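Notes for week 9. Today we move from apo structures to complexes. The key idea is that a small molecule is not decoration. When we ask for a structure prediction with flavin-adenine dinucleotide present, the ligand SMILES becomes part of the input, just like the chain. The input block below holds both the sequence and the ligand string. Read it once before you look at the output, and try to guess where the molecule might sit.
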Amino acid sequence: MTEEVEPAPSVAVVGGGAVGVTTAADLAARGADVTLYERGELAAESSGLAAGVLYDAYAEDVDTAVGARALERFRAFDRTLPGFSFTSCPYVIAVREGDPDADAVPAMVERMRDHGREVSVVDPDALGRRFPALRTDDLAVAAVAEGAGWTDPASYVRALGERAAREGVAVETGTAVALGPRTDAGREIRVRDAGETGESAVETRDFDAVVVAAGAHTRSLLADAGVTVPVVPYRVQALVARAEYTGPMAYDATADAYLRPHPDGLLAGDGTEPVPADPDDYRREADDWFREGVSAVLDERLASGDSAERFDPQSDVSRSWAGLCTATPDGDPVVGPVDSAAGDPVAGDPALFVAAGWQGHGFMRAPAMGETVAEGVLASLAGVDFDAPDSPWIGAFDPARFDGDEEFEIAEGMSLSNRADGT
Ligand SMILES: Cc1cc2nc3c(=O)[nH]c(=O)nc-3n(C[C@H](O)[C@H](O)[C@H](O)COP(=O)(O)OP(=O)(O)OC[C@H]3O[C@@H](n4cnc5c(N)ncnc54)[C@H](O)[C@@H]3O)c2cc1C
């Protein structure tokens, strides 16, 4: 007698950014029948605009575990994923004299070390001796995370997208989807060409599960299915400047700006606008205030700033741009099933999942979180409860912790308070 073979679960992943491609590739690697839908090209939105700063310097245990796993995979991909490379580079957190946040740094670093991270508090003079490219005489305290690095985010998405396609994922770029109702066959989605306007659906398909990893569009996409998640897009900015820079990555916590080496000089950014942005209508060019502000920070933070040569936001900046990050009320992402969270009539039999709200840290967490989502979806489809001891889902990221209509202030993603208290 032949044993009946269960058909592979069919899963649609909506969003061809870092989170979506990782989820799709990891689902396929675990035997699922996967279709990845992206309305533009892979890496068309936030993942293609990210700075590529990667670190595990978090104080909270869940964040540390995610950061550590992500970096482990980035390093492994460097060896095994054609078209992708990871450059190891220490990450400096610098706090200036007079900044009250300075007092919190030693305890924050202690917590990072308790979770096994290679991070230490460094005296500013010693920091200056180790990294002559940085100016340190105005600092009160600094910390160095040794396990960090950087990459080109778009190359990760494209390389992993190609691998996913080789492993059997149907990669449907130029294809926007809308969510349809829950049916007996699973979750329905409507597929249309991205170029097409209006509501008419070209095709309707049922999947056992749908994962929404649509970045800044997540909230509006889910709203069509009657699911409300408090994931609010906000605008951040970055630039590439011509400079001889071979120092570490650095986050000037007092100035709220970061920098890293870049093949064309250095990349610097933040320029957070802590107000909700419309993902279909936001300014994609960087603002003058951002270019001028970052140029001033570079003058102050780089040792070469002592010379007569000052950064000129007009002539030294070769590229600058704005993109979107997504905020949640507590700064943690929403990752997991959403049907039951939304009071779906078939609660307990989830077919709709979300992975969004990364608060500026979505790219560096994508290798770990895509893996978690892939394993979580398959566990949920197999009947494992979200809270079960063997559930891959992360309790702190449960979408059900929110009603979805919360009002909240958007907090800057890299800020020390955001990182130190794990919120
Ligand atoms: C300037 C800047 C610098 C940043 N720097 C860093 C950094 O150094 N480190 C870090 O970790 N993070 C950084 N981030 C944040 C990071 O970019 C995001 O957290 C991350 O890219 C989110 O990935 P994602 O896959 O969730 O979303 P996205 O990359 O936005 O992907 C979502 C995709 O869904 C698609 N989509 C939307 N609606 C639909 C639909 N209806 N149908 C089909 N497809 C759809 C979109 O086209 C998009 O490609 C930065 C962001 C910006 C803007």
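Residues 61-80 form the longest helix (20 residues).
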